[in-house]
Structure to design on (229 residues):
């Protein structure tokens, strides 16, 4: 049974989300402010976090930023604001997904399933033949769901890992942002292709020696992105 932490100061919405999660069979933890969220996340070790941005004590952006330094647990951010800047800031702090209120509970549940499925790949044993992809000094071990650089483990979020693996398995092919949203995110992300740009930037910071002048994760101007090994 997966454990989900819901962080929301609107009690009615908190209870609605909790009710539907429990109904779906998830163990559910709750917090109403950012400070409580950090405490419960560290002690309860949830498998996924649903995190509102506008919170008392510590806002959601800062909670996400702190947690991302400590864990790669998938995080879905919630907000009542529709400003694109907020969406980009949420992704910049390390969130895996973003939903604007009001939202469909069915869609939230679908996104939760997708993130848990990807995060759970780390526990899935693949056939005995090792599946290794090399990108310069970076090694992707598909069996162990692990990425390393010169034997140093690189901590990636679920979406960063999925994006890296997809591009690496399709070396030299150029994919548009829309194609990557469809192939990696697996659903319509409301046309917000900046999501892809943010994750590419995060990946470059983690796998490139000089992120400002990448050698492997390349931008093809006017088209999209590709990986060259």
């Amino acid at each position: 049974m997966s454990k989900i932490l819901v962080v929301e100061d609107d009690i009615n919405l908190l209870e609605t989300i909790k009710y539907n999660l429990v109904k779906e069979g998830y163990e559910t933890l709750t917090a109403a402010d950012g400070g409580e969220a950090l405490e419960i996340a560290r002690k309860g070790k949830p498998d996924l976090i649903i995190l509102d941005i506008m919170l008392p004590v510590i806002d959601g952006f800062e909670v996400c930023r702190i947690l991302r330094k400590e864990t790669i647990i998938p995080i879905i951010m919630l907000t009542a604001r529709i400003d694109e800047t907020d969406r980009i800031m949420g992704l910049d702090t390390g969130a895996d997904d973003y939903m604007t209120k009001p939202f469909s509970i069915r869609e939230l549940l679908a996104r939760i399933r997708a993130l848990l499925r990807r995060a759970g790949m780390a526990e899935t044993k693949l056939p005995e033949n090792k599946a290794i992809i090399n990108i310069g000094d970076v090694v992707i071990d598909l069996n162990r769901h692990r990425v390393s650089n010169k034997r140093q483990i690189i901590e990636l979020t679920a979406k960063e890992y999925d994006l890296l693996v997809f591009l690496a398995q399709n070396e030299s092919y150029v994919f548009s942002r829309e194609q990557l949203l469809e192939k990696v995110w697996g659903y319509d992300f409301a046309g917000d292709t900046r999501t892809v740009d943010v994750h590419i930037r995060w990946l470059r910071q983690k796998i490139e020696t000089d992120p400002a002048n990448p050698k492997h994760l390349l931008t093809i101007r006017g088209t999209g992105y590709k990986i060259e090994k």
In short: Residues 105-119 form the longest helix (15 residues). Residues 122-130 have pLDDT under 50 and may be disordered. The longest strand covers residues 3-7.
